[in-house]
Write a structure and sequence with these properties.
With 242 residues, this protein is an alpha+beta fold. It has one domain: Immunoglobulin-like (Sandwich). Helices cover 22% and strands 33% of the residues. The protein has four helices and eleven strands; from the N terminus they run αβαβαββαβββββββ. Strand 1, helix 2 and strand 2 form a beta-alpha-beta unit. The longest helix is centred in the N-terminal third of the chain and has 17 residues. The chain is globular and about 50 Å long. The N terminus is likely disordered.
């Protein structure tokens, strides 16, 4: 085998191993630049972002904007997602920082002990029956899905992320602070429905919804805010050009 071919084979192996991790857990943090209790939760998300078995997402909500600082990454749709989660989980109202784990349970995002306990228990359970794998490169990236018929009807979502943002806040409750945010959701789109059998979907990385994102996550979720049945993440900057 030629050296160049060997390098390609080795890279393909490394790429595949990074594309999917067993016992993956999805942690969604609802946060705001105007929330004075959120920085500790944002720091926990930074720690979780280094865990290959955790898919972490930071959704910035807009209901703190009236406090004197408009969150630069918030969208009304993200607030609506949080409201829908709380309704599905039987909670009244919303709060920040709130973490939703696998679409099934919630905890204060700054409560490290409880959050890590739920993550640990989720890894030990069988909550994610659908395997999600990325294959290909920047010119022809695909996602492969396989799982049981019980996952039929799950919505396939692609989520565009900004892996790192440092924001200097000059007004509101966090005035004077520079806060690091990781895996900030920029856009989300439903791209299909799982039919309970193996499926391959090409991804358009030139999609206008990318909007400068450098990381993507694929979720399989029952409904818009039901249990999450499969997930995977990948850094676009680490993909080969072809």
């Amino acid at each position: 085998m030629k050296k160049s071919a060997l390098i390609i084979v080795l890279f393909s192996f490394i790429f595949a191993s990074q594309a999917f991790a067993d016992d993956v857990v999805v942690v969604e943090l609802f946060t705001s630049q105007g929330c004075e209790k959120c920085p500790p939760a944002n720091m926990l998300m930074e720690d979780l972002s280094r865990d290959k078995t955790v898919v972490s997402l930071s959704w910035h909500v807009d209901y703190w904007d009236f406090m004197g600082w408009q969150d630069t990454m918030a969208k009304p749709a993200f607030t609506e997602r949080q409201k829908a989660y709380n309704e599905a989980l039987g909670r009244k109202g919303v709060y920040t920082p709130q973490a939703i784990i696998n679409g099934r349970s919630q905890v204060a995002g700054s409560n490290k002990m409880d959050l890590y306990e739920i993550i640990h228990n989720s890894k030990a359970s069988d909550e994610m029956p659908v395997t999600v794998i990325f294959e290909g490169d920047l010119s022809s990236l695909k996602i492969k899905l396989n799982g049981p018929e019980t996952a039929e009807g799950a919505v396939i979502k692609i989520i565009w992320l900004d892996s790192l943002q440092r924001i200097k806040i000059s007004d509101g409750k966090n005035a004077g602070k520079t806060i690091t945010y990781v895996n900030v959701v920029k856009n989300v789109k439903n791209i299909g429905v799982f039919q309970g059998e193996d499926l391959t979907i090409p991804l358009d990385l030139n999609d206008a919804d990318r909007n400068g994102a450098d990381r993507i996550v694929v979720l399989l979720q029952m409904g818009e805010t039901g249990p999450i049945l499969g997930a995977a993440k990948i850094d676009l900057e680490r993909l080969p050009a072809n």
